[in-house]
UniProtKB/TrEMBL annotation:
Protein keywords: Methyltransferase, Porphyrin biosynthesis, S-adenosyl-L-methionine, Transferase
Protein name in the entry: uroporphyrinogen-III C-methyltransferase
Entry keyword tRNA processing: no
Enzyme class: transferase
Length: 328
């Protein structure tokens, strides 16, 4: 097998004898003739910029006003909370006025509200997978956590339908990335998660698909655990599973595909470049699923064929899988 392409995860399946699955209505594509220079995905760099530049704290009702804060809007007039000795000097929230104000609000909430506060004063961080796009594919646990969160940091691939589930008093912060544009660096995201967890907030990190499948969730989890922050992972349906179910293409099938392999299409130098693993991935008895591979698909296809994958191996490409905008 081989690959769908969702641009909710540039995803591709190649499938050996795909027609044996009863899916002959699918149109196999030749990877070598695939034009990867153009994307019709709605999650573009422009979209990322719009998300980042709009109101930092997004509410379910667009007419809803931000809650008033006790400090002035100007950074200079925002005083650091009284327990500032517990705040690290490199705390990213102290560098940005809107984040500084939010940190104060959360600290005040922790100290004055009647809600339950952890004994150690630290909040919890949840890494939540939001699935491939369809909000109905969220787990019940994910919905519960999303609705009770104080702060949610969300990625480019998290749909607005999922964000609509956020509670009215929660704050949202966009930290999405596209090729060539990162609204926040990964190190800044680490610091943000840590800062608000130290303020006692319930912090949710929303990630498309599953947080531990090509989502850098492992890096965030390791960083926070080293700082003494409790991290809970709520799995999501990864794009490969969602799209295979949507299209009726099994990831494994007796007599056709006895294994499945997930591969990132991101091109990086050295041994992590997908082109360097093509030799081991060119197995006609396996399903190969490539995530985020539009830019490297032609080169990867050539490498796979060079290392023994039949040129006529059926494949399909899908974008925005499991959503009403799904296209193949």
């Amino acid at each position: 097998m081989a690959l769908p392409y969702t641009h909710h995860y540039d995803l591709s399946f190649s499938a050996l004898n795909l027609k044996k699955f009863g899916s002959s209505h699918l149109q196999p594509i030749c990877c070598l003739r695939c034009n990867s220079s153009v994307s019709s995905s709605p999650f573009t760099e422009k979209h990322s910029l719009q998300r980042y530049q709009r109101d930092q704290w997004v509410y379910n009702n667009n007419n809803q006003q931000r809650p008033s804060l006790s400090c002035d809007d100007e950074a200079a007039s925002c005083s650091v909370p009284a327990d500032s000795d517990s705040i690290r000097l490199n705390d990213i929230t102290l560098q940005l006025p809107e984040l500084r104000k939010l940190l104060q609000v959360l600290k005040h909430k922790r100290e004055s509200c009647g809600g339950q506060v952890p004994k150690n004063g630290l909040g919890d961080v949840f890494l939540v997978g939001t699935g491939p796009g369809d909000p109905d594919l969220l787990t019940l646990k994910a919905v519960k956590v999303i609705q009770k969160a104080d702060l949610l940091l969300y990625d480019r691939l998290v749909s607005n339908a999922v964000l609509d589930l956020v509670g009215p008093d929660a704050r949202l912060l966009y930290v999405g990335k596209t090729a060539g544009y990162h609204s926040r660096t990964q190190e800044e995201i680490h610091e943000l998660l840590l800062s608000f967890a130290e303020a006692g907030a319930t912090v949710v990190r929303l990630k498309g698909g599953d947080p531990l499948v090509f989502g850098r969730g492992g890096e965030e989890m390791d960083f926070l655990q080293q700082q003494g922050i409790q991290v809970k992972v709520i799995p999501g349906i990864t794009a490969a599973s969602g799209i295979s179910a949507e299209l009726g293409i099994p990831l494994t099938h007796r007599g056709i595909a006895n294994s499945v392999r997930f591969l990132t299409g991101h091109s990086r130098k050295g041994g992590t470049d997908p082109l360097f693993v093509a030799e081991n991935a060119a197995d006609p008895d396996s399903t190969l699923v490539v995530y985020m591979g539009l830019s490297t698909l032609p080169s990867l296809a050539q490498k796979l064929i060079h290392h023994g994958l039949p040129p006529d191996t059926p494949a399909t490409a899908v974008e925005r899988g499991t959503t009403p905008q799904q296209r193949m």
